[in-house]
Amino acid sequence: MKIACVGGGPASLYFSILMKLQDPSHDITVHERNPAGSTYGWGVTYWAALLDKLREGDPASALAVRENSVSWTEGVAHVGARTTVAPGDEGFGIGRRRMLDLLAERARTLGVRVLYESEITADRLPDADLVVAGDGVNSALRERHADHFGSEIVHGRNHYVWLGTAKVFDSFTFSFVETDHGWIWCYAYRFGDDRSTLVVECSPETWRGLGLDTAGEAEGLALLEKLFADLLDGHGLIGRAQPDGAAQWLTFRTLTNRTWHRGNLVLLGDAAHTTHYSIGAGTTLALEDAISLARALREHEDLDTALTRYGRERRAELLPVQSAARHSARWYENLPRYIGLPPAQMFALLGQRHSPLLPYVPPQLYYRVDRAAGRLEALRRLKRWLGPKVARGVQARAHRR
Fold first, then answer.
1. Under a CB-based contact definition with an 8 Å cutoff, are residues 137 and 268 in contact?
2. DSSP assignment of 285-322, as one string?
3. For residue 89, which of 52, 158, 208, 222 sits 20 to 30 Å off, Cα-Cα?
């Protein structure tokens, strides 16, 4: 099979690796429009379950990723002067650029052509049996046929910006700071021995009240360094300004597609779906797409059958993840509802932010029920059953209004 992957992200590269391992005679080219070594983002997160899947698909790339990752087992939340620490599952961080370099090198050793500064336009697709659109949330290949794919984008309410810092965090860290214009907070995690990612988020009212809507990058970074001075311990923040000097504040776009392929063109990763960054699953889900697509192509000789199965399976598997991501985003959009709780309760509900029941139950009552459910199996079953039922009922009433 002749395969063209458009976009040189982790999903496209890992898919090319898997396909070469399945059949070395596949003719595979990965087209990346940017120069080698240039990439957006700082570090990406993943958990042990992904490593297990990578080992199953290709032990060599799994080992390379793990050896170049750092890990943590605790979560820390700073709310003003209060600090809460809680144990958690082992999490991992790796620089996005480092991950791309590792996967590209592995792909090349297997015979994949990885071409940089090779831009593919939607009106002139490569001559290939299969074209994989791994060109991100702004996918030109998807947008050309948006009606066919049934693309829908929903914008979140809060504003956020991705930053880097030389401050190295030993734990996955949350920091909430109260200002005269409302709360502003960050998520911080290390991805190397000398670098961390720091994502700052706030409501639109706080964003405008602090003047971040009009501040250039240098001015905005200086303000954020002042607000998070206790957390940063004298370290600065590193941004990625636009050519006009503006800071890269965004609102999150949740993308869904009704179908994931059109003829021999198939969507992969962020071109097919996005989930809110607060659940830290974007890279994992993209790599799982690659695994699923490669498996479908191995198990079905007919291309349309394989692509149909891939899309159907992945959309079904993503439903609970997308639901969790929506509830997580809304938890932060409704932060004042939780921020005044005692530290242990607030951190516990931060960990429960994926629950469909939490928005409809008074926070302190939910906390007590959740603690009791941890001890009683009958309450756990009731909670799992009641949450989706209450959420569907509230949503149905809202649609009828």
1. no
2. HHHHHHHHHHHHHHH-SSHHHHHHHHHHHHHHHHHHHH
3. 158
